Amino acid sequence: MSEMMGEDLKPIGEMTVLVTGASRGIGAAIAERFASVRMNVVLHYRNSHEAANEVARRCMAHGAKVMTVSADLSDKEQIVRMREKLEAHGMEPDILVNNAGVSHYGLLSDVTEEEWDSLMSINLKGLFMCTQTFMGRMVSQRFGRIINVSSVWGMSGASCEVLYSTSKGGVNAFTKALAKELAPSGVTVNAVAPGAVDTSMLDHLEPEDIRLLQEEIPAGRLAQPDEISSLVYFLALPESGYITGQIISPNGGWVT
């Protein structure tokens, strides 16, 4: 597989990726996957400083150039400052992975307005502001990859996860619409919508709930984070330039 598509495009190993919410779980696995080809990796986190540093150490062990940045993605000024910091260090992203997100479990009748606003400000508004802040350079260089980490629940909905499902459904619609807007500029926009993944996001479930969940999945198990990161990496390749506007769901056959 060729690493270049066109004479002016950098090899993927010289590109920079920004992964939001990269201090753990799927985000950490995504960052390490890109680091394994020695791509420049920017790890975003909000509060988990030590966890982000540990991911950074694992990425650097691959020989990658790594930078960590902290920002509250519900605050546009902090996102802009993050961009300015990356520009100052020559780490402007060619690839943006919008992975940061939070979950919520409970009956809709019990949801407060504050809970709604908090979840939407991270899962949907934060994704919008990050994309808007970083896509300009991609458009100007006529190459870029925007990959949004969604959820199978954004496709099918889930009882007691109305807030989360709604936010991820919004991510999917955002992905499809922006893909059409940016396609003429050589920038692809796709979403990866995992099923149940073995991360801390499932910590609210009891062991028996996990067992029953696995029985519902045709593959008979939870996904591992590196199974999601491999798909994100594939979508970021220059050779994947004809794939855009897609919601791809690695879910073990759970939702088809």
UniProtKB/TrEMBL annotation:
<dbReference type="InterPro" id="IPR057326">
    <property type="entry name" value="KR_dom"/>
</dbReference>
<dbReference type="InterPro" id="IPR036291">
    <property type="entry name" value="NAD(P)-bd_dom_sf"/>
</dbReference>
<feature type="domain" description="Ketoreductase">
    <location>
        <begin position="15"/>
        <end position="210"/>
    </location>
</feature>
<comment type="similarity">
    <text>Belongs to the short-chain dehydrogenases/reductases (SDR) family.</text>
</comment>
<protein>
    <submittedName>
        <fullName>3-oxoacyl-ACP reductase</fullName>
    </submittedName>
</protein>
<dbReference type="Pfam" id="PF00106">
    <property type="entry name" value="adh_short"/>
</dbReference>
<dbReference type="GO" id="GO:0032787">
    <property type="term" value="P:monocarboxylic acid metabolic process"/>
</dbReference>
<dbReference type="GO" id="GO:0016491">
    <property type="term" value="F:oxidoreductase activity"/>
</dbReference>
<keyword id="KW-0560">Oxidoreductase</keyword>
<dbReference type="InterPro" id="IPR002347">
    <property type="entry name" value="SDR_fam"/>
</dbReference>
<dbReference type="InterPro" id="IPR020904">
    <property type="entry name" value="Sc_DH/Rdtase_CS"/>
</dbReference>
<dbReference type="InterPro" id="IPR050259">
    <property type="entry name" value="SDR"/>
</dbReference>
